[in-house]
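Re: methionine sulfoxide structure - here you go.
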Amino acid sequence: MFAAAALQSDSKSGQYAELAEQARGLLHGERDRIANAANFSALVWHALPDINWCGFYFFDGEELVVGPFQGRPACVRIALGRGVCGTAAVRRETQLVEDVDAFDGHIACDSASKSEIVVPLYDGDRLVGVWDVDSPRLARFDADDRAGMEALCAIFLESIA
Ligand code: SME
């Protein structure tokens, strides 16, 4: 049985390296997308401070549909190009939003969310979905979070390839 240890490192990048190691162990040997997305969300949810939602939206061929997540119930479908999630999917680059109220078109699922990071998930040219994390704190996410989340998402994508 996998047991996630509390993160020990003093630096954020060190903590993400530890979390990446835990994610590798957790997803190892399993390729089911729902199973791995569910465990991945739970791992991050319990490891990171100051977050109120984390989870997946998967592309169904037309739009983004909510997948496994932790936090309050969320909007189910997001059109490509809409909100932070749809923008990340279309631009193919991580969206780091310090203040969601200042992001034109932000979709508010939980009014507690103040900042957000969304990583697009691509398998080559194929859009798989996005990984979305919200925080009740303004400017909760920085360049370390971007690098750390992108590394974690690469581990998730590898696990389901
Ligand atoms: N805020 C997102 C919608 C998803 S929720 O945050 C879970 C967006 O603007 O795309």
